UniProtKB/TrEMBL annotation:
<dbReference type="InterPro" id="IPR016047">
    <property type="entry name" value="M23ase_b-sheet_dom"/>
</dbReference>
<dbReference type="Pfam" id="PF01551">
    <property type="entry name" value="Peptidase_M23"/>
</dbReference>
<dbReference type="InterPro" id="IPR011055">
    <property type="entry name" value="Dup_hybrid_motif"/>
</dbReference>
<protein>
    <recommendedName>
        <fullName>M23ase beta-sheet core domain-containing protein</fullName>
    </recommendedName>
</protein>
<dbReference type="GO" id="GO:0004222">
    <property type="term" value="F:metalloendopeptidase activity"/>
</dbReference>
<dbReference type="InterPro" id="IPR050570">
    <property type="entry name" value="Cell_wall_metabolism_enzyme"/>
</dbReference>
<feature type="coiled-coil region">
    <location>
        <begin position="80"/>
        <end position="114"/>
    </location>
</feature>
<feature type="domain" description="M23ase beta-sheet core">
    <location>
        <begin position="209"/>
        <end position="303"/>
    </location>
</feature>
<keyword id="KW-0175">Coiled coil</keyword>
């Protein structure tokens, strides 16, 4: 559908461009004619009345010349009016052309996003097929391995979080309020909230509750920055064999004292140090890391409390995720995203 719209816009722009060329040619012809009229009028007006009488053979010829001069002036006024109309029409056609070109750029960006989503979907599907080889038994074994590794990771992370001490300065972060952050997905469907959720009470997260919000997002869904800021870290815990955590993630630090995390991505489109604007595409959703299905894990942190570190350096414990780099904060450094969305 987007490709069809791009084709239609290109044809419209070509038609408008031809129209512009035609109008410009017409204006050039009219301007040349108007210049000639002005030249002839100037020659007529430079001759005094007495000179005109003397140079004319009789009064009849004089009146005829004066009548011709008046006709010339009238024609010139009509030419000026027509030229003004043509220039206004040219201006409107140019404005319409620019509008179509802007829409063309927008549609091309949409097409790139759609292609990115499709690529992300195919990549995730291929990864899953490569892992499971389409065999249920293999899938169950991988799932059990992930659950065991995740439990070990959560225990180490919970121990680290409990040992980290941080006192929040309320003046360093904005007070809770709707609309401080925009939703990172366009179609909002929350599958798990922050805190002591039913899944957390079932034994997940080592008893510390869910540290973010999960949004339903099929593989390849565009993920967008919740606020302008700077990318302070990206990573992929799946690169560490046996570590099932955030998977592919991006963290953005904002100017209001908050930082936001986007995790379980199938691919990211930004790098550390990049500046992003509110609503900018930063990646695509997936099911990397420990995820029972495709979704986005969205976390909000006190910016001054979060560290991006190698987990093993922080915990001094040997776990499957010891070599994985990820954001870590004390328990007080995690904020409820719902307070700011």
């Amino acid at each position: 559908m987007t490709k069809n719209r791009i084709g239609a816009l290109q044809l419209e722009i070509q038609s408008l461009s031809r129209n512009i060329e035609g109008k410009q040619g017409s204006i050039r012809v009219q301007e040349a004619g108007l210049a000639e009229t002005l030249r002839r009028l100037n020659e007529t007006e430079r001759m005094t009345f007495a000179a005109a009488v003397l140079s004319s053979g009789d009064l009849t010829s004089l009146w005829s010349d004066m009548d011709a001069s008046f006709s010339l002036q009238s024609a010139m006024r009509e030419d000026i009016a027509e030229l003004s109309v043509q220039k206004q029409s040219l201006s409107e056609t140019k404005a319409a052309t620019e509008q179509k070109r802007a829409e063309l750029v927008k549609q091309r960006n949409n097409l790139l996003a759609e292609q990115g989503s499709l690529d992300a979907t195919r990549r995730a599907q291929n990864d899953l097929l490569a892992q499971t080889k389409s065999q249920e038994s293999t899938f169950q074994a991988i799932l059990a391995e992930k659950q065991a590794a995740k439990a070990s990771f959560e225990a180490a992370l919970a121990d680290l979080q409990s040992r980290l001490q941080y006192t929040i300065d309320p003046s360093s972060i904005p007070p809770a309020g709707k609309g401080i952050l925009r939703y990172p997905v366009d179609n909002v469907k929350v599958t798990q909230y922050f805190g002591n959720t039913a899944f957390a009470r079932s034994g997940a997260y080592a008893g510390n509750g869910h540290n973010g919000i999960d949004f339903r997002a099929s593989i390849g869904t565009p993920i967008k920055a919740a606020l302008s800021g700077t990318v302070i870290g990206t990573g992929n815990t799946d690169a560490v064999r046996g570590c099932y955590s955030y998977g592919r993630w991006v963290m953005v630090k904002h100017g209001n004292g908050l930082s936001t995390l986007y995790a379980h991505l199938s691919q990211s489109g930004v790098s550390t140090g990049d500046s992003v604007r509110t609503g900018q595409l930063i990646g695509y959703s997936g099911s990397t890391g420990y995820a029972t299905g495709p979704h986005l894990h969205f976390g909000v942190y006190v910016a001054s409390a979060v560290q991006i570190i190698r987990l093993g350096d922080a915990t001094n414990k040997k776990t499957a995720c010891a070599n994985a780099v990820m954001p870590v904060a004390p328990l007080s450094g995690y904020l409820n995203p719902a307070d700011y969305l």
